[in-house]
Amino acid sequence: MSATEKIEAFYAREHQYKKGIAVLRELALKTELEESYKWNFPVYTYDGKNVLGICAFKSHFGVWFFNGVFLSDPKGVLENAQEGKTKAMRHWKFLSENEIDKAGVLAYMQEALDNQRKGIALSPGPKKETVVPEALSNALDKDNELKVRFGKLTPYKQREFCEYISEAKQEKTKQSRLEKILPMIAQGISLNDKYRSS
């Protein structure tokens, strides 16, 4: 399925927010943003850079601004998408189509586009060094082929696996997580591949 087909399928899907996301799309298309499809939802870009996305969930729908932290937010509506995890992304949530202030949303979208044009974006901080937990290190040392496959994964995917094991408090949990990820490493897939666009 092409990106265009995925976008059309996203907006055609029957759910309680179908009309609401259609309105948001209509507004996004009034800007100079280009419509694309990433992470299973429509993303609007400028010069290849992500500016905003339109999402629908079980309890709300809305617009994600990738560098929303830099928006002036005169209406005070933006929320941190995932407190503690995202530094720049901000979300404007809606519970119904009637809540959409079209002029307001369009102004926010236009400001986000203008900021992108000016290059206003959060620059990534220094890359964290990945510390391989002892349990994973021991497993890799015992299986050379697995060690090679782990080495071929992107640093991001390696870090995901390492953090997944390190975050476990109990030894039993670490062991069960290790058993879960070893076949994934062998196949070259990561913990969150299912959430990323193909």
UniProtKB/TrEMBL annotation:
Boundaries of every YdhG-like domain copy: 23-113
Annotated InterPro entries: YdeI_bac, YdhG-like
Family annotation (Gene3D superfamilies): 3.90.1150.200
Protein name as annotated: YdhG-like domain-containing protein
Organism: Poritiphilus flavus
